[in-house]
Design brief:
This protein is of the alpha/beta class. It has two domains: 315 residues, 3-Layer(aba) Sandwich (Alkaline Phosphatase, subunit A); 140 residues, no CATH class. 30% of the residues lie in helices and 18% in strands. A hairpin with a 4-residue loop joins strand 12 and strand 13. The radius of gyration is 23 Å and the shape is globular.
Length: 483
């Protein structure tokens, strides 16, 4: 009997005991799916997700700081924070030179994941597109790379032979919406449906043909649509226009996605399968961007050998005068500020004994910033050592949250103001929000209902607890079964 049928039967026969058998765990990851959509606005039109929620444990899932896809999913699957992983975003400093940033890959993950621990205990896993999982790494089971996979020519599966098998039996695997930062809204929508169809087609094949005790997949469709069409669907967005042609587009996509989830549950989630539906963070309207490096230049912390450009120019195209530069920043959904420290950076400007004073001075100025209307932005400039248990890799000196994540950090220069309402990396309608979703259904001995105080890294502990296993040493979370 499928899990959804079991839920229907439970309504007719309350309290009917379920036989104990070999437990399986299925995790459906919906990148950037916000609580206000899944639990509220769209609840009546996502019946499969709502049924799982109503008969299970659910609540908002607090994300990491800052809430960003990489490393959030791996923080979830290892129960460690970004500082412990040494991954502070998609791109990270390789060293203390000025050579820019490198993309995170699976090889940067040194902490044991859920499937690493399950492999050690003889459990089979199917792991699909959990970022960052390119290149795929060995495990007991099979794995498909994530949206960071460069293209379909790459070796994106473990084992390598699985790639040809998938292509022959499940067709093309779509990793991401390429060039999703575009004004072509129809293209984003069409590609989101194509990607989701591809992802669930591959999941169906693997679940039917590969042994599994644990299954996890991450669907990127909600994230790409949030970033691409949020101004069309959210009345609180400054560019929202009632009656626009895409006002219900995200609602319609979730209805489609819920149907795919229902099909998968009907076929593969039996009475002994615990199902979790989770997201790594939520979403909210983005007001605009703060030109971080332009602000640092204006305040006298960042110097250039050439004149300020008359057109938008990335900082790596500028001639930075490192001998006279105190700090520089990086763009993205949050800002990362780096200090130019004597003895640490090649042309360090700040004496080590002045480090704390300069950092505190910059943090105070950042938090005192006002917006384009002269109102306090409510910025936060956070010190990594105060929010993370460790600081591996090369952490930023300050992690900057502009305007409660309603403003992004813009690293380029050449703007007319330190405020911009156009993104230097292409159109973007939304930023990430601090809470995602958590739903757990069919967990033995757990009373259904809403639960407060859930954190993203509780998921690792919960999955392993369902298998009767301890979490990884140093895990930051607590099993939801024990909360």
């Amino acid at each position: 009997m499928g899990l959804l049928n079991k839920l229907r039967k439970r309504e007719a026969e309350p309290g009917a005991p379920a036989p104990e058998h070999k437990r399986k765990v299925m995790v459906l990851g919906l990148d950037c799916a916000p609580p206000q959509h899944i639990f509220e606005a769209y609840a009546d039109d996502v019946p499969n997700l709502t049924k799982l929620r109503d008969d299970g444990v659910w609540g908002e899932l607090e994300s990491i700081t800052p809430p960003i896809t990489v490393p959030a999913w791996m923080c979830m699957m290892t129960s460690k924070d970004p500082g412990t992983l040494g991954i502070y975003g998609f791109r990270n400093r390789k060293d203390h030179t000025y050579e820019g940033l490198s993309f995170a890959t699976s090889w940067a993950i040194k902490e044991p994941t859920v499937w690493d621990i399950l492999s050690e205990h003889g459990k089979d896993s199917i792991v699909m597109s959990v970022p960052p999982s390119y290149p795929p790494k060995p495990l007991r089971g099979v794995q498909i790379g994530c949206f960071l996979t460069p293209n379909s020519d790459a070796d994106y599966t473990y084992p390598k032979e699985l790639k040809a098998e998938l292509q022959a039996n499940a067709g093309e695997y779509v990793f991401d919406i390429r060039n999703f930062r575009t004004d072509n809204t129809r293209y984003i929508l069409d590609e989101a449906y194509r990607m989701t169809e591809s992802r669930f087609r591959a999941a169906d094949y693997l679940l039917a043909h590969k042994p599994w005790d644990f299954f996890v997949m991450v669907e990127m469709g909600p994230d790409r649509l949030n970033h691409g069409i949020w101004s069309f669907i959210d009345p609180e967005h400054p560019r929202f226009r009632p009656g626009n042609p895409y006002e219900n587009a995200l609602h319609d996509y979730y209805r489609f996605l819920d149907g795919k989830i229902g099909e998968l549950l009907e076929r593969y989630a039996d009475d002994d399968t615990t199902v979790l539906v989770v997201s790594d963070h939520g979403a909210k309207a983005m007001v605009g961007g703060v030109c971080f490096n332009q602000w640092l230049h204006r305040e006298g912390y960042l110097s250039f050998r050439n004149d300020m450009p008359s057109e938008i120019t990335p900082i790596n195209k500028m001639e930075v005068d490192w001998d006279n530069t105190v700090a520089w920043g990086d763009g993205g959904y949050y800002g990362r500020l780096f200090l130019n420290v004597e003895g640490r950076e090649p042309n360090g400007k700040i004496k080590p004994e002045d480090y704390d004073r300069v950092r505190d001075e910059l943090a105070a100025k950042i938090e005192a910033m006002v917006d384009h209307e002269g109102k306090p932005m409510g910025n936060k400039a956070l010190k990594p050592e105060e929010i993370y248990t460790s600081q591996n890799g090369v952490p930023p000196d300050l992690i900057v949250i502009f305007g409660g994540l309603r403003w992004r950090s813009v690293g380029s220069l050449g703007f007319d103001s330190i405020y911009t309402f156009e993104n230097d990396t292409g159109p973007d309608e939304a930023n990430h929000a601090e809470h995602g979703i958590f739903i757990m259904n069919n967990a033995p001995g757990v009373q259904s209902g809403r639960k407060e105080g859930l954190h993203l890294w509780d998921v690792h502990c919960t999955i392993l607890d369902l298998f009767g296993l301890d979490p990884a040493p140093g895990a930051l979370g607590t099993s939801v079964l024990r909360k």
